[in-house]
Structures are given as C-alpha cells and as structure tokens.
Amino acid sequence: MAKMNMIAALNSALAHQLERDPNVVIFGEDVGYFGGVFRVTAGLQEKYGPHRVFDSPLAEGGIAAIAMGMGLNGLRPVAEIQFADYIFPAYDQIVNEIAKLRHRSGGEFSTPVTFRTPAGGGIKGGHHHSQSPEAQFTHTPGLKVVYCSNPRNAKGLLTSAIESNDPVIFFEPKRCYRGPFYGDPHNVPTWNNHPDGEVPEEYFAIPLEEANIVMEGSACTVIAWGAMVHVCEQAIKDSGVDCELIDLQTLVPWDRDTVVNSVKKTGRVVIVHEAPKTSGFGAEMSASIQERCFYHLEAPIERVTGWDTPFPHTTEWDYLPSPSRIAEAIQRTQEE
Amino acid sequence: MTERSTVTTTPYTIGVAPFRPGDEPSFGGKFTEQPEDLNRPDPATCTTDDTVEHAKGLIRVLDDDGEAKGEWDPNLDAATMIQGLEYMMRLRIFDDRMIKMQRTGKLSFYMRSFGEEAIAIAQTMALEEQDWLFPSYRQPGAQFVRGRDMVSMICHCIGNTEDNVRGRQMPVHYTWREGRFISISSPVGTQFSQAVGVAMASAYKGDDEVCISWLGDGTSAQGDYHYALNFASTFKPPVILNVVNNQWAISTHVSLATGGRTFAERGLAYDIPSFRVDGNDFLALYSVTKWARERASAGLGPTHIEVYTYRAGAHSSSDDPSAYRPGNEFECWPGGDPVERLRDHLMKIGEWDEEKDKALAEKIDNDVMTAYKEACEFGDLASGPYPPASTIFTEVYETVPWHVQEQREELGK
Prior knowledge:
heterodimer, A: alpha/beta, 14 strands, 34% helix, globular, B: alpha/beta, five-stranded parallel β-sheet, two-stranded antiparallel sheet, 13 helices, 9% strand
C-alpha cells in the first residue's frame, strides 16, 4: 500500500498496463511529453517510449477513430479526452462505430478501447469544463460506463476497464483528483488521511460489475457516483439518518444485487448525481428500483441532481447537489 | 476538372450542377489529359512537391484507342487483366441480378457499383492479401478479389440465417473478417479516419500491412475525411486514402458540395503525395495503388488519391436520378465505361474476343443465379427463416450482461 491521490493512482494503473501488455498504447491531447493537463500520464512517455504514449492532434473525433482502428487491429488503446465536455466531436465514432462494432459485424470484429475523461464540476470550469455526460453514454448499448470516486477505485476500475474487451467510457471526477470533496469549497482536504488514499502499489483490479457499499445503514439507501459520493457522505452525517451509501462505480452494467438488496432492507432511496435531472442516469436507477422493489418502498424515491440548465461558472455551488439539499431529501424519505 | 458554375444573384454563393433533367450534357468530349502527360515518380524518393502536377492533372494508362501507354503502365500480364475483367463483369452482373431481386421484393434495399467497378477491384488486386480494406458503399467488388463466396454475400443482403452479421444490417453493409473487409457504415466517412488507426497498429506491430480506405466526394465534407488526412500526415502510417469523386452524392452534385480545387490537391497541403487518377481506367488505378503500397510498405507513409469517375447508376434502390440529372450523362462521360475499356484493351492486344466475352458473361450469369438460389435455401426475405430473435441480444458485449439477459428473457425467444 502507498498513499496516492487519484492522479497518482490512475498513473499507476496505466503504468502497470503498459508494463504487462505490450499492446497497450496511450494517447490524447497533451498526454505525451507534458503528461496531461491533469498530469495523469506524467512520466509514462519517458519510461515507455513515444510510440506507446503520445500526443495526438487536437481532434477528439480523430482520436476516437484511430483508437477504434488500433483496437480492431490488435492493440489496446487508452485514449484521453481532455475534458468530458470535449467528447462530443467523438460521439459518432463512439456511439455509432465503437459501441456497435462487435454487434454489427456479427462478432467478427471488436475493439477494446478505453476512453478516460475528467468530468464533473467544482473547479470553476463553467459549462464547458464541468459537465458530467454519463447518461449520454449509458443510453448506448455496447458501451460500459464507469465512474470512479477515489484513488483506490480509480486504480482498480481503470485496470479492469483497460482489460475489458468491450469499449469503456471511464469518467474521472476532476474535483476529486487531489482530495475528496464534501461539498464545501472552503474545505479542501487531500487524500493523505483518507482510507481510500491507501492504494496497492502492485497490480490491482476491481471488477466492473461491482458497486461499493461505502457505509452500511438501515434507514435509507443513498446511491451516488463520482464526486457526489463524498458529498453524500457529508449529507448523511448532517442528516443524522442511518443511511447505506452505495458508490455505484460502474453504471453499465450496474450492480443490481447490491442496490436491490439494500433497497429491500431500507425501503427508502435517494439518488444523487451532478448531471441534469431530466433523462439523467438517476431516472434509470429510479425506474429500475421501483420495478424491482416497489412493494418494499416506504417513501417516494428522491433524486438530487444538477438542474436542467447549462452548468454555471461562479454560481456552481448552487448548481451542484449540496450536502444540505441531499440531507433534506434523506429526511423527506423518513417522513412517511 | 469540370468548371464549377454558381448562381451569383443570391447573397452568398450557391453551386449549380452543370446539367439538370432536360439539359444536353457535355463534358467537352474526351479527356484532354493523356497517358504520357505525367511521370511516375520513384516511390522511394518522391516528395509531395513531386506530385503537384499529378494532383492537378489526371493519371491515365489506357488512351482513347484502348492502348496502354506511359510511365504508369503497370505492364500486367494478360491473365491478370482477364482476371480483373472477370471480377468487374461479375460485379456488374451480380448487381443487375440483385437490383432485379430488390425490384421484385426479394431484397429490402440495394446499391450498385455501376460505372465504378474498376475502383475497388483494380485497387485490391494491387494490394497484398494481408492488407486491410475500409470501404464505402461502392467497393463490394473487393470481396471478389479476396475470394468471398457470392452465396455468403447474398445471404447477407437477404438477412437470412446464413447472414454472417445475423440480419443486423441493411443489405450491402458487408463485413468480412477473413478478407479483412471492415463493416460498411451508413453515417459515411467514419472508416476513413479509423483506417489511419488500423495502419498505425500495423506499423506498431511491425507487420507488413497496408490499410486502404475509400469515401465519396460528398463524404469528403465530413470531419472524418480531414481527421484522416491530418492524422495520416502527422503519424505517417501505411495508409492509402481514396476520395472517389463520382460527381454525385445522392442528388448533390460536387459543384454544390465544395468550392475547393481538385480533391487530390487537398492532400498536398497535408504534405501527403497526392494523385488524381482516371477511375474508369483499370490499369491506372492498379498502377497508382501499387505505387502507394510500395511506398507505404517501405515505411514512407500515406498516399492520397482522388479517383475521378462517374456514378452511372442511382445512389441506391431508393433513389431516382431522373429527378435531378439528365439520363444520358454517363454516356457523355469522358472516362467511358470501365468494363468496356479494359475489355477493348484486351481485344486490342489479341487476348480477348467477343466469343470469350459472351461465354464468360453467360457463365457468370449462371453462377450468380445458382448462388442466389442457394442463398435462398437459407431463407428469403418474404418468408424467412431469419436469424433467431435471440441474436438481437448477443454480441452487444463480449458476454451478455444481466440487463440484456433480462430483456432477452422478456422477449421469450
């Protein structure tokens, strides 16, 4: 075990994959010589060579396309999209091409591409450095969608994402790169004293189908992913309610058994995500939970999400789900 | 190049197709460019600047009298040319049979390669069997070169139980791993930039593989075309990037789709050797592609080719070109008919005659009919059988995840 922030943990996962599999290549904007704008690929080009870790032209559509081509010709590409907000020029290649290649070729071709992309708000990034577009990919059959939340699962999940023979969209909550985020912009702890800042130095994988029960409880199930996991932790403390907090980790395919078992136990659910409410992945979770657990539910399922508006700049703390909004939702579930 | 005409009375420029229904088309008679106009640069030392005239001009081998001339003559033996003729005739007869099937309700849709048969066939013949093919719609002929069975192709077009893509794609969206023929994609152009990645992987692994891709003049407006050229220019992998300029993107004439110079000239700005080639000249296509492969295989990077041709048929079985262009444009096309041109050449050099030609056409027609009947034994469009409904749920992921499995059980098949 070693103390790592999320950047170091991701870097460690990438280094292990470069070491273990000669077919792994890493590329994207600024990821080579410079090591990435968030430093996730720092030192990798120097160690593994410019043919394995390199800077690409500034064209997400082109990055996705060459990743697709490399992947179907035997390589295992890990492409970085510098901000999730920038992924849309690559959307056609990801949604129509990469996601569907295995199916539409009758299984004759497939491409094991991983797209890493920093997502989410809390860094004063305005609407083009803050979005969390996971639902735009969970709606696409053929993709796996992963959202890490801490250094430990960042490493473990990225390992499994790269090793997956299915294409994976891997979201990294950029607000949590250097520390957990409890919803208070004036309190910025590091990962230094956090148990999930202890990360195995050796090869380490977490299966993509598993959610993580962050804290056990019996009165309400709180489901979140990415930076919202930590905000929920704070909200649960503030609410005084005995909540079970589930970090979903993988959104597609999500961990049905963990979620269903928890909801059957608590009978109450709050789902939290940064992305806008309408057609957010919380809607899918809510619908699926009521389909499976309707007769166990004691209160309406609550969703606490970003608003159905573009993501703001200076007012982002009023946009993001706050501990108080989440705590209020938790308390509402207890009223019935 | 055809002069681009425009309407100047609008607030911005609107391109105008040179001829519309009712007009008498004329492309100025024969090509002014001749086979001996352009040299064949040494692929080992050629720079982009050495191809400037090639990108503006037109590489030809077969002249208007059916003789092979100039430095680009690949000096193919008669057997190879006859093989090429056979593939082209087979494609045309196959297409004609399939469009009849579509017209009688036996296929849901079809697209012919009419007038463009030489392109994929000559170019694939110039490649090696390990080379990757990233086609657009009018390159199915490449599969004949690689030896794909017509029964398998027809089964795909029907979408029956032997369709290798299990009834998941529209007809002519062929996929064929064994022939390294990637799945054709309707959003058009996406394959072009993917091909660069495939070629990068080949270079990474040190394999002697080249990737060739084609897209149309209309599709060259897509970002993927420009991504491909820029990434190819940046990383210089072994890739051959062809713009098939067949004048028409469904009803949109090339004059309405770009204000630029020749498509080939675009490659010059990316510092990629670029050629403009007569797309109805089997020998010129073969020769230029051979040049590009030799260069790619030597580690010298990409080649950009404009294949100058004419879409003789409708865009697809759903299209009616009489609504937007004169019916006799193809007859006026200076490039003529690619099948006839190679046939005329073979006759001129005494390697082919009417009798052989008639016999071959009859044999192919029989082969196609036999293949069609055989394919229908695995299910026809009207009555099936189709692939089992369970194939909706398979190969979405490597293994079936629980939520997809639940939905399969809900369907109950």
